[in-house]
Amino acid sequence: MSEPVEADTDGPRDPWERFGWLMGAVWLVFLAFPASTAVAADRPALWRALTVALVVTFAATYVVGFIRVTRAATWAEVGRRGLAGLGVLVVLLLLTVPTIEVQALGMVPFVVAFAMFSQPLARALAVGLLGLLGVVLVPLALGRYDETWHLTPIVVLVLVSTGLVRLLEQRRLEHREFRDALTVAAERDRLARDVHDVLGHSLTVVTVKAELAERLVDVDPERAKAELEQIRSLSREALAEIRATVSGLRVARLAEEVAAARTTLADAGIAAELPDDPSVVDPRHRIVLAWALREAVTNVVRHSQASACRVALGTDYLVVEDDGRGPGRRGDGQGLRGVRERVEGAGGTVSVGARPGGGTRLEVRL
Fold first, then answer.
1. Residues spanned by the domain of 32
2. Which residues contact 138 (CB under 8 A, 6 or more apart)?
3. Could you report the per-residue pLDDT of 195-213, keeping only the tens digit for each?
4. Do 20 and 138 reside in the same domain of the chain?
5. Which one of 102, 151, 304, 349 is least enclosed by Cβ atoms within 10 Å?
6. pLDDT on residue 182
7. Structural domain tally of the chain?
8. Over 70: is that where the pLDDT of 16 sits?
């Protein structure tokens, strides 16, 4: 059975919700046997007509019950609706017994099938086993098993086939729930990583420019004013990037990140050696390397205490080196973990270590 959805959910309806009842209705042709038995029974015409009406009502209840449970909004509602329908089916079956006697057992397979698709698995299996015992023991007790022996394999087949369908469907729903949970977790991680990358870089640049403006406010007011205007512009850009990140539209562009790195390093008083042509990078790798470059430059400005920084780009690699205090013994921070996740997700590797001669060297290869 398909997972129930809220009634006001937008979008196309689940095909099972619309047409699932047909899977049960197609077997109603077999109710012709108890109906024909009722017509030919040695009973008054009124009893025979009433029994035929009961069989028809049984068929209608079966179909309506299937429609109701497939359109239920929650699993709790499925159980409630299904239990009511199951009770009505059993009562209708019993009411036909005075007229068609053991032939009423021909309706048991429908009760078993309905229970399997509308009740919790344990209860459905219990109904199925009771139905199987009924079609075997009742005729044997009455000495009429030769009239209904064919119902035993039918009930076994219905019980096994619907049970397998129910188990597979239950596993499918469990898989869907697990998959959805993983999707939510991955999206949460992506959002946290992107927000960190955007805010970490932007706030680092704003801090550097604010410190520069503070030093210049007395000696060069015009330059300090220009820096403050840039801070305002950067703040607006950061806000726009955060909004784009939350909506999933944020895409880092390599050429823009190279230009931003040049400005950020210069404002921090760090001599920068940057590539002139980012287009040498394979287009498949540019977005990942752009994010890696942004985080690497942010770390250089924030942590390295470096005086110089060199960035090299190739078809499938990025190298960022500085002459600062080195990586030390600290583990990966949130930003570097985000870089590793992005790069490893693209099939690449990240290495961070001490640079010969002092400083830190970060290398990304895809």
1. 15-149
2. 102, 105
3. 666 666 667 777 777 887 7
4. yes
5. 349
6. 77
7. 2
8. no
Place of tokens 């009423």: 104
Last residue of a domain, one of 112, 128, 149: 149
DSSP-H helix ranges across 41-150: 45-70, 75-100, 108-118, 121-142, 145-148
CATH number at residue 361: 3.30.565.10
- SS3 assignment, position 318: strand
Q: What is the mean pLDDT of the chain?
A: 81
In a domain, 281, yes or no: yes
Q: Which two three-digit tokens encode residue 138? A: 């009742």
Distance CA 5, CA 7 (A): 6
Q: Which of 122, 149, 176 is the last residue of a domain?
A: 149
Tell me the pLDDT band of 342, cut-offs 50, 70 and 90.
Answer: confident
CB 5 within 8 A of CB 14: yes
Which residues have a Cβ under 8 Å from the Cβ of 336 and sit 6 or more positions away? Answer: 295, 299, 350, 352
The string of DSSP codes covering 243-309 is HHHHTT-----HHHHHHHHHHHHHHTT-EEE--S-GGGS-GGGHHHHHHHHHHHHHHIIIII--SEE
Strand order in the sheet with 308-313: 271-273, 308-313, 317-322, 360-365, 349-354
Domain assignment present for residue 204? The answer is no
Q: pLDDT at position 189, please?
A: 73
pLDDT band at 246 (very low <50, low <70, confident <90, very high): low
Q: What is the DSSP letter of 58?
A: H
| 145 and 19 both lie in a single domain | yes
> Helix, strand, or coil here: 322?
strand
Do residues 67 and 21 touch, judged by C-beta distance below 8 A? yes
Q: Identify whether 284 is part of a domain.
A: yes
Closest alpha carbon to 296 in 352, 235, 366, 226: 352
SS3 content of the chain, % helix, strand, coil (to 5): 75, 5, 20
Please indicate, yes or no, if residue 155 is contained in any of the structural domains: no
Q: Give me the mean pLDDT over the 72-101 stretch.
A: 82
Greater pLDDT, 200 or 362: 362
